[in-house]
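Sample 3 of the quickstart, ligand 2'-deoxycytidine-5'-monophosphate:
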Amino acid sequence: MRRTKDCLIIAIDGPVGAGKSTAARLLAKRLGYRYVDSGAMYRALSWKALQAGLDLNDEQCLRRLADETSIALEPADDRELILVDGQEVSRQIREREVEQASSKVSIHPSVRSVMVAHQRRMAAQGGVVMDGRDIGTVVFPDADVKFYLTARLEVRARRRHLEIQAAGATRGVDELAEEIKARDARDMGRRASPLRKADEAVTIDTSDSSLSQVVDAMEEEIRRKLAAAQGFT
Ligand code: DC
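Result:
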C-alpha cells in the first residue's frame, strides 16, 4: 500500500448484477471518497454513437468519437449526473438499447484506451472508489485494495428484474438471466481487457448478504490492509 488513508484507490470489478455500483457508492460515501462508475462512461459514449447512427463494429470511427467526446461524472445527492458534451444523459444511458450497445462498443481496444486514460486522470489525486470490469487488472493494477464482487446468476437476474420494475418496465426473470449470460460471455470472452478477477482481489459473493454487510466487509478489508502496511499486524 503506497498511499495514505485519505487518498487510496479502491478497485471493484465483477459481472453485471453483482451489486458493484450500489456497494461502491456506499463505500465511497463512508470513506468520504469520490465514486467513479466506469460503466457509465462506456454507456455515455455508446449513447452518443447510437444518436449519431454509427456502426458499432467500426472501431476507427468509435475511437475518433471517443477522442472528441467530453464525458463528465458529477456527484449529485445520492446519485451521479452523467454528462456528454455538457448534456445530461443519466437516464438515457440506462436504457436497454444503450446497455446492449455498450457491451459492443467496449470490445474495441482503442476505444478502451481512451476511456482508461480518462479514468486514470479522474483518480490522479486518489481518494477514489471505481467500479467496472478491468479496474483492478488494467486501469489500476497498483490499486491499494481490489475487490471482485459476484453473485449467483438467479440472484443477479432477480436484482435486474427489480431494477427494471422500479423504472416502470417489466421483463421476465428467465429472459433477464439469458441476457446476463450473454453479457457475461462478451465481457469475459473479449480479447481486450476481459473481465477477470485480479490475482490480489478479495472475492465477495453478495448473493446472500445485505448491502451493509457487503460494505462492512469491504471496510474491514481496507482497515486490515492499512494496518498491515503500517506494520501493526
Ligand atoms: O457496468 P455497466 O453495465 O454499466 O457497463 C456497461 C458496459 O460497459 C458493459 O457491457 C461492460 C462495459 N464495461 C467495460 O467493458 N469496462 C468497464 N470498466 C466498465 C464497463
